[in-house]
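help with these tokens:
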Amino acid sequence: MKKLATVFTLLFLTFSLFAKPPKNQYVRIKTNYGECIIRLYNETPKHRDNFIKLIKAGFYNGTLFHRVIQDFMIQGGDPDSKNAKPGQALGDGDLKYKVDAEIRDSLFHKKGVLAAARDDNPTKASSATQFYLVEGKRFTDEQLDKLEQTRLKGRKIPLSEREIYKSVGGVPHLDQNYTVFGEIVFGLDMVDRIAAVKKDAHDRPLQNVPMTVSLLKKKECRRLDRILSD
């Protein structure tokens, strides 16, 4: 029996060592309005790795979604939002570094994406901590044409992206200005519920919306990779 147990142990260890790592890292955000699962993009490794580092440190737990605008986005990650007093203006908190911009033509502000907030720095470097989840709205071709001429200053929206902005929705005027580094794969309705809450003059919810953010384990990530690739 001891020999048999040893064989099974060796087989288990061998499988564990040589099992393929997941292709993607997934993140869970829990709130009192539900939860969502986010796939982090491998195309934006600096933002992915920074987000993972902060999650492992428990940085986001207890921070608030402090700025919510319906048909636009919900924003969180301000360290000053932990234990913030009612009515306190938020949005300026950060850590003492920025993340280099990783703006990719293929990653755009469709509904459900995760993107990094930033100030008006000329390099478009991102906040170390603050992020937003896009709710957005659906557009017509006429609205997108007008947007190209005005806010996009003549930049053409690719046809494939147009179709998504018309069918799913999003915020196209943010494209090429902020780094998009992930997307919600389950639980998109959480964003809709939070975006609809009552808020004050600073777009802060009247009732706090705290979050808990965690990394999914490798086994769960591999399972999601299989599900989402089918």
User: Anything to note?
Assistant: Residues 136 and 199 are 18 Å apart (CA to CA).
